[in-house]
From TrEMBL:
It comes from Bradyrhizobium commune. This is Glycosyltransferase family protein. Signal peptide: none annotated. TPR repeats lie at residues 54-87, 88-121, 122-155. The keyword ATP-binding does not apply. SMART domains: TPR (SM00028). The keyword Plastid does not apply. One of its GO terms (molecular function) is glycosyltransferase activity.
Length: 487
């Protein structure tokens, strides 16, 4: 740091009057409530009369980042650093933003500046570990996580992140335990405040009623529903609570006595409870003991499958081409959506095949994809008629193959035992592990991975080549009898 920067930093406390900081706190209050647009208005109004206050730009930068206005957020962080170069928190925040945008070298440089100012800055050490992880420098990432925990041993955010890396590398024993820190890691998960005891297979449940409740996304509910029969086999009556979109789908899982959504819980009596995401911990799941990897969801009702078969036939005519389902993007609100989703036009090389008929499974088509989808007569889109995941399951049973990015659709196809190819980013979610093209969670799944960050082109090319081989081997007479449920 040069003399001018040290002078600016030394003057900083004198430039921030108490009444000015109080005004900033009003915006911070709105920010804490998740009302980012309102908070931004407060910060903007304050800036007009107080343009040289470093904490304002740091906090407004965080607000802009939450609103997805990344260039403006970066400008605010840099402005805050110019006003006060000795604030380690701002350097860390700028590093986190660079990491969010995939600029890992810049991210590490910013985080290292934060650590030069505060060597025992636990949050910065955790962010450094995450950045190293993103570069798949895993030994260095583990070391940084352990260094962060040496400074702040009970930090739930660090414990949770370390657990994800442990599971990604196959260390489920420690990973499941550490993953329980998610309840205190500021992830938006809400403590249900249930008066009944938490069950982690630590007591007999024969003759008891247990509530198994969804705690994360739809894909997680589908993935962990495989444990319901195991709980029921211990003698418990199982009430399964999930979101409405998968309620009809999961109601017929063996062992489910009642399937409800959250609104119905208060009127029910039960003895114990367990989040679905904690069941792998309760059963001590290892890579070699994952249950029901072949399939565990009941087949869709015959009548519903036939309805979808008729809809496809009416649009496509005789079944003389391989039918392939597609999903190319997930929930935009997901914190890793920028890595796992792609634009539909990225899949264009697949559409060169004359022997494959593509069927959209994509709900919530994004604005940038609508025009391209409308131009593609070779992609059948009946998704407006999909009312929930039970309908999607019936449609999937009418297909020969599903190709999708990491969304709930791949969990659904895998849980049904339908062939599914999952396209993964360079840094995948923990459940897909590393350096393998199969999944221990779903035997019918193949994995196609980015060789480098952001390289979807290579993934799509690999999928295209494999699809060409599959199409060549496919014959119309191979009607998907193995998929169509029996009467």
């Amino acid at each position: 740091m040069n003399r001018q920067q040290r002078r600016a930093a030394a003057k900083q406390p004198e430039t921030v009057a108490p009444q000015k900081l109080e005004a900033v706190k009003q915006g911070q209050l709105l920010f804490g409530l998740g009302r980012y647009a309102e908070a931004l208005e407060c910060f903007n109004a304050f800036e007009k009369h107080n343009p040289n206050i470093a904490p304002l730009y740091q906090t407004r930068g965080l607000c802009l980042q939450r609103l997805g206005r990344f260039a403006e957020a970066q400008a605010d962080f840099e402005r805050s650093i110019a006003l006060n170069p000795l604030e380690a928190e701002t350097h860390k925040n700028l590093g986190t933003l660079h990491a969010r945008l995939g600029r890992m070298e810049q991210a590490l440089a910013c985080i290292d500046r934060a650590l030069a100012i505060r060597p025992n800055f636990s949050a910065a050490l955790t962010e450094k570990a995450r950045a190293l992880w993103s570069l798949q420098l895993l030994d260095e990432a583990f070391a940084a996580f352990h260094q962060a925990l040496a400074v702040d041993p009970g930090n739930p955010h660090t414990i949770w992140n370390l657990a994800l890396l442990q599971m990604l590398t196959g260390d489920f024993e420690r990973g499941w335990r550490g993953r329980e820190a998610r309840w205190n890691a500021s992830l938006g998960l809400v403590d249900r405040g249930l008066s009944q005891a938490l069950w982690l297979r630590d007591r007999p449940i024969d003759g008891k009623t247990i509530l198994l409740h969804a705690d994360e996304a739809l894909g997680d509910s589908i993935q962990f529903a495989r444990y319901v029969p195991m709980v029921a086999a211990l003698g418990a009556r199982v009430i399964l609570e999930v979101k409405p979109a998968v309620q009809r789908l999961l109601a017929d899982v063996p062992g489910v006595a009642m399937c409800i959504d959250r609104s119905a819980v208060t009127s029910l009596a039960f003895d114990l409870h367990c989040p679905l995401g904690s069941l792998p911990l309760a059963f001590g799941t290892r890579l070699d003991t994952i249950p029901f990897a072949d399939a565990y969801l009941p087949a869709a009702p015959v009548a519903r499958v036939k309805t979808w078969q008729d809809r496809l036939d009416s649009r496509l005519g005789p079944r003389n081409r391989m039918r392939v389902g597609l999903a190319w993007s997930g929930d935009p609100a997901h914190n890793n959506d920028h890595n796992r989703s792609m634009a539909l036009r990225t899949l264009a090389p697949l559409f060169e095949s004359d022997d494959a008929q593509f069927v959209s499974l994509q709900k919530g088509v994004r604005v940038q994809d609508r025009a391209f989808l409308a131009e593609r007569a070779d992609i059948v889109d009946l998704t407006e008629q999909l009312t929930d995941f039970s309908d999607t399951a019936a449609l999937i049973f009418c297909l020969d193959l599903v190709i999708a990015v990491d969304t709930s659709v791949v969990h659904l196809a895998g849980a049904l035992g339908v062939p599914v190819w999952t396209m993964l980013p360079f840094n995948p979610d923990w459940r897909w592990l590393l350096n393998r093209d199969d999944s221990p969670w779903y035997q019918s799944m193949r994995l196609f991975r980015q060789p480098t960050r952001g390289d979807w082109e290579s993934v799509v090319d690999s999928v295209r080549c494999e699809l060409e081989r599959q199409v060549f081997a496919w014959r119309p007479e191979r009607e998907p009898a193995l998929l169509l449920p029996a009467e």
